[in-house]
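sorry for the late reply, my laptop died twice this morning and i had to redo everyting from scratch. anyway the thing you sent over, i finally got around to it. pasting the sequence first so we're on the same page, its 362 residues, then the predicted structure underneath. double check i copied it right bc i was rushing
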Amino acid sequence: MKKLILSSFFVYQIVCHAGLLRPGYQFSRPTGMGNAFLALADDANALFYNPAALARVKGVRVHLVDAQLAVDKTETLTRLKQALFDKNTDGLIESDRQSLGLSVKPTLITPYFGLAIFDQAFGSFDLQNLQGDRVDVFGFNDLGIAVGFGIPFSDYFSFGFGIRAVQRSSIDIDKPTSQLISELGLDALTINSNPWNALKNYLGVGYAFPIQLGVLFRLPQVTKQSPIIRLAATVEDLGNTRFTRVSGASAPSTILASYNFGASLQYGLAKDTVLNITSDLRNQFRSLPLFKTFHLGTELRHKIAAIRGGIHQGYPTFGASLEFPPQTRIHFSTFSMELGDNLWQKEQRWYQIQLVIGFNPL
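ok and here's the structure:
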């Protein structure tokens, strides 16, 4: 049970405030540019962001190593080290607030096709030492396979389809503190001393097959010097993703379908140097405030390095990377999420680093 709980702590998705969105998988390069990536999607991230972009892939890319770590502070990193290397999981979760994400996804990308074997994990815990009005806890570990196809219908339009087979172990709690204490039958001191041990009965395990659709348009260039303009639309978790519970456990929470739109402008500045400007509107048709759904990004990219900036849920983002051909990358990014219902109410900042080691066999 302790190993299962530990694996469920890792990930990439988020907590349970009424106004807090639960985004899909997010990686270092996109988050550095405000996570506005649907219409750009010009690397292996297309498999998770917009499978229609696979139709524009040239050559074959194999990522033998693709690993990412996301933390909210150095103390969280210390707790992770103690849990993984010192086998001390008792202090993994602090009783105030913390977040952690981890992903591993060896990936194959070819023209029109992508495949990844992934383990995506995330945990966000807002216990407030049980002194607040509510307890918000969300964590999951997704283990599975992702497959995507991109079909070009012309030089200017492509369609994409993606499906994942995933087993999820998760915990999802959003309720008044008094109700939680009553349900557990424990005092606050006992819960705070070892939150995971107290909350393990809320663990759910199940499997599902999330479906993603995407389209990508490229507008004709007026002149060779004109920017390349792309428009995109995607549907994630088509029809809502419902998990079938594994015997002896409850089912993880349903993931609602999300409808997303994006645009990008790409300027060629010099040889091997481009400027990308992107924007996304995520989670449309949910009556959400604009600041929760609007994403804006910029990227100045050379073939060996890049810098990025953007806006994500009203907060600034920053990113940088070193890229050593053929397929070795180090990406860093920092971005924030709004845990409250209003702009600049309750910030949660993340720091991500991603290492990719691969090659081009063809």
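Residues 1-20 have pLDDT under 50 and may be disordered.
thats about all i looked at so far, will dig more tmrw
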